[in-house]
Design brief:
Elements: H1 3-20, E1 27-32, H2 36-51, E2 56-60, E3 71-72, E4 75-76, E5 91-99, H3 103-113, E6 120-128, E7 140-144, E8 152-156, H4 158-161, E9 165-169
Parallel strand pairs: 1-2, 1-5, 5-6, 6-7
Antiparallel strand pairs: 3-4, 8-9
Helix pairs in contact: 1-2
Length: 171
């Protein structure tokens, strides 16, 4: 995907989010750290352009909740921070760059529940590459990109990587 394709995809996703939620009242976007955060911020800007209403954006660090987390001397290495707003009874859109096995989304759900009980949680991903290990499905998918197990998707965003593009990378 090129920069313009990413932008068009995010605009379409913003429209889908607004339509399915009948607006954005009590809706917040939470980006899963690292590339989910700039994607959530971009979606929020597009939603505001369309609706004229700002949407809160938060950042979620799922390090502690991963089932493959790194450990140092038996203690997890964590940099968790609370969200800047309460999520109790809010509609949450979790945003991430790639949905693969489902383990990141599962960890994000665990991290969210630690901070409150949202009214509803939906998942929005830029790319769904398949190969689930857990029964998790995105509510909003920018593009489904079938891959083999040895390929991987590289999402590059200007906020992190100084360019916008998505690549399927061969081993």
């Amino acid at each position: 995907m090129s920069a313009s394709e990413i932008d068009r995809t995010l605009r379409r996703l913003a429209h889908e989010i607004i339509t399915r939620n009948e607006g954005v009242e009590d809706l917040v976007l939470i980006g899963i750290r690292r590339r989910g955060v700039p994607l959530a911020e971009r979606l929020a800007r597009k939603i505001e352009e369309i609706q004229g209403t700002p949407t809160a954006v938060g950042e979620l660090d799922i390090t502690y909740h991963r089932d493959d987390r790194s450990r140092e001397h038996g203690k997890p290495v964590v940099q968790a921070a609370p969200l800047p707003f309460p999520i109790q009874d809010k509609g949450i859109i979790l945003v991430d760059d790639v949905l693969y096995t489902g383990r990141t989304a599962r960890a994000a759900l665990d991290a969210l529940v630690d901070q409150g009980r949202p009214r509803r949680v939906q998942l929005c991903v830029l790319i769904d590459r398949g190969h689930r290990e857990l029964p998790i499905q995105a509510n909003y998918v920018g593009r489904a990109v079938p891959t083999t197990e040895d390929q991987f998707i590289e999402v590059r965003l200007r906020e992190v990587d100084d360019e916008d593009r998505v690549l399927v990378v061969e081993p």
